[in-house]
Amino acid sequence: MIFRLIAPTDSLEDLTQLLHRAYRPLAEMGLRYVATYQDADRTARRIAGRECYVGIGAGRIVATVTFRTASQTSGCPWYDRPNVEPFWVITKHADIIEIGKQPSVFLNAPRLAVFTNEFPPPTEAESRHLLNMDPPDHARYRRVTSAWFTPRTIRGMEEKVRRVTAEVLDDAAEKSEGDFVSDISARITIAGFLLFRGHAELLGGIVGVTIQIEAKGMVERTTLPPPAENRTDMIAQVTFGIDISIFLVINIHFSQSWQESRQIA
Question: Domain residue spans in the chain?
Answer without folding.
Answer: 2-72, 105-145, 150-263
